[in-house]
Structure formats: structure tokens, C-alpha cells
Amino acid sequence: MKMRSAVLILTLALAGCGIGRVGAPPTVFDLGLDARPVPALPAREPIALTFQAAPNLSDTSMTWRVGDSAAPKSYATYRWASAPAELVRQRIADRLSRQGPVLNDRVNLQTPQLQVSLTQFEQVFTEDGQSAQGRILLQAVLLEGRAVVGQKRILVQAPAPTLDAEGGVAALRQASDEAADQLAQWLATTLRPATTPVARPGG
Q1: Other beta carbons less than 10 A from residue 60's beta carbon
Q2: Which of 35, 54, 115, 177 is deepest in the core (most CB within 10 A)?
């Protein structure tokens, strides 16, 4: 009974936070500036990035759930600035570009293609309502030519500093950065390093 009461209180507090504010515009968040240091990795050749996401991540809803519930919910008065699919794609491209160019399309079949699928991007509360985390799940496949040379599942869970939408945003920002960095580290072990000419003294 205590567990059900805690879940009910959490649901009313989060989903019903718009009570008394009818007509107020939603508060809008993005993932913030990409200011976190990236791992020290070798330079790599250009890659082509293709990105897709689960259908529920194609609008601007800010999703949360309790435990392993099969019933996700959305905040009433908080939204993402863009769909999570676009926010995460841009963050991954930005962070991967520190090691080498990230292209939208293959230049030719020799250009490695990284296919990324975003299947989870949400704030998850414990069943007792005492803590929460931002959770992101990626599936990545690397192609060279038409051959699959590697695949990787990346699940990152970052603690939320507060039990509200702002805490969820902070946790999902951290989780997105960590997921992108894990992807970069995987590419560093799977792809050949860039072949760059040795600089000569005086240019």
C-alpha cells in the first residue's frame, strides 16, 4: 500500500503540475552547450552518420516513468526544444567530430557508415519516489562498404540532481554526453586511425 501511495503522489506531482496554470506556455529545454571535455582519442577518418529513433521520441514531449512501468508519462508544462531524436543526433555528431569529420551522407562506399538508433531517452524514478535518473539507450552498427564490421549497445544511466523536470534534463544531458563518448571510444577501437601526413618544420 505504501508503494502504491508513493507512486500516486509522484504521478500527481509531476503529471498534474499544470493545475492552476491553464494557458501558461510550457517551459522549454535543450541539452545545453557541449562544454564537457571529450576523451583523448586518436584522430580518425571521416564517417557518415545516419540516425533514427523510436516513434515516441519524434515529438517534443518530456517523458518520465516509475521503475520498470510499461506506462510512460509526459510532463504537463515542460517540453524539449526539439524532438529528442534531433537533440541526441546533434550532440553525438558534435562530440564525434572532435576525432574526425562527421558527414550526413557517404562520399562513397569506402566511407565508413555509422548507423545509430535511439530507443530510450527518459527520466526514470525509483518506485519509492526517492531518486531518479536520466536513461539513454543506443544501438549502433558500423558498416564498411556493405559489410557490418561491428555493433554496439550503449546504455547510460545518470543520476538526477533533483526530482523534477530540471533534474531530468541535467541527468539526460550527462547521459547523452557519456553515451556519445562511449560511442567515440568504441569507434577508436573498431576503425583504422586517420592517415595524416607528418608536418614538416617550417610548414
Answers
A1: 17
A2: 177
Alpha helices in 23-143 (DSSP H): 84-96
Whole-number Å distance between alpha carbons of 160 and 171: 5
pLDDT along the chain (203 residues), means of 10: 47 49 83 92 94 94 94 95 97 96 88 96 95 98 94 98 97 98 96 60 39
Model pTM score: 0.84
Q: Report how far residue 62's alpha carbon sits from residue 100's, in angstroms, rounded to the nearest whole number.
A: 32
Q: How far is CA 63 from the centre of its chain?
A: 13
Q: Which residues pair with 79 in a beta bridge?
A: 28, 61
Q: What is the largest CA-CA distance in the chain?
A: 76
**Do 142 and 151 contact (CB within 8 A), yes or no?**
yes
The dihedral formed by the CA atoms of 27, 60, 163 and 127, expressed in degrees to the nearest 10: 150
For 46, list phi and psi in degrees, rounded to 5.
-60, 145
* pLDDT tens, residue by residue, 137-167: 999 999 999 899 999 999 999 999 999 999 9
